[in-house]
Amino acid sequence: MRQSYLFTSESVSEGHPDKVADQISDAIVDLFLSKDPEARIACETLTTTQLVVLAGEIRCKGVYENGAWAPGAQEEIEATVRNTVKRIGYQQDGFHWQTFRFENNLHGQSAHIAQGVDASGNKDEGAGDQGIMFGFACDETPDLMPATLYYSHRILHRMAQDRHSGAAPFLEPDAKSQVTLRFENGKPVACTAIVVSTQHAKGYDKGDQEAELHAYVKKVVADVLPAELLSDATVYHINPTGSFEIGGPDGDAGLTGRKIIVDTYGGASPHGGGAFSGKDPTKVDRSAAYITRYLAKNIVAAGLAKRCTIQLAYAIGVAKPLSLYVDTHGTGSVGDDKIEAAIAGIEKLGDLTPRGIRLHLGLNKPIYERTAAYGHFGRNPDGDFFPWEKLDLVDDLKAALA
Fold first, then answer.
1. Could you list the active site residues?
2. 3-class SS at 190?
3. N or C terminus: which one in the chain shows less Cβ crowding within 10 Å?
């Protein structure tokens, strides 16, 4: 691994059109799981000018059974979608939570998929799809996340807080950030470039108002990044294309699952290709990505490595993973094969089957809308939320490798 290099990650705000779609899809997941913890959901969302469209497959007791909607179910779905957009803050002519057109094209889950996933007789519940999933952790930040992504998320999260509180009334919901850091001996030592593009109120692209916006962004960056990373040499690109009044779904169509690198590790780790939002936890695209992050984070927190990548692979309808792979990138205090054996020997992980993962992490709950903006990882565990960020496996790993 190179010891001296530049690396960059980006983030997008909750008002980015793709993130609007992700949050709507996960709000639907939460709605159905609140009705039926065993619900099956695959909900895709399209957003564009004054339009939101849902499509996908579901199975949910008391909501959609035997090919029919329960009374009031479709109205509750529409209210959930509109309330999600309202929370984000869209009240613009081109996209307004009260007036956009809404289409619900959700329908029943394929019986052929269900037969592979459902437990029956001596058959354990199978994975909801084939695929490969990666988890990652490193010691660059307190939350054991890549520093470039960690700070990109925090810039936009701070801006969103200020927008919602009224501290920055000139901000509108859509925004993107990008952070470039210089690394020496594998550690971030300087921020060489910051990019922030934010939708803004009319007039904040010229004169004193533009200067106010630029000064505000630089203040946020100074508050978020450690002072030792910033200097007069840091280059800022703030709204580099000029005016950014038209944004969100009115400026660009949004789709669920198009920000998978923003959702995970900012390009610092491989990605299996599967998105998270809109999927119930029988889909290993989601649940196995969470357990691999959990394992990698606990490995780094246990002092077994400074950097760790884990891969799992599954076949649709098959319970046990096809493979488990650990790579500590030459930073491990023990061999990677020994860490693999330790993971396999921890009984409470339940052989890393889809059911075992869900039971261990408590994933059959309405906990997903909060994941759909500012990253699924590097978040503080809070009650039922973000259980894959807990460090409750550290002692087990240390004991297994003692």
1. 16, 18-19, 44, 57, 176, 244, 252-253, 258-259, 279, 283, 285
2. strand
3. C
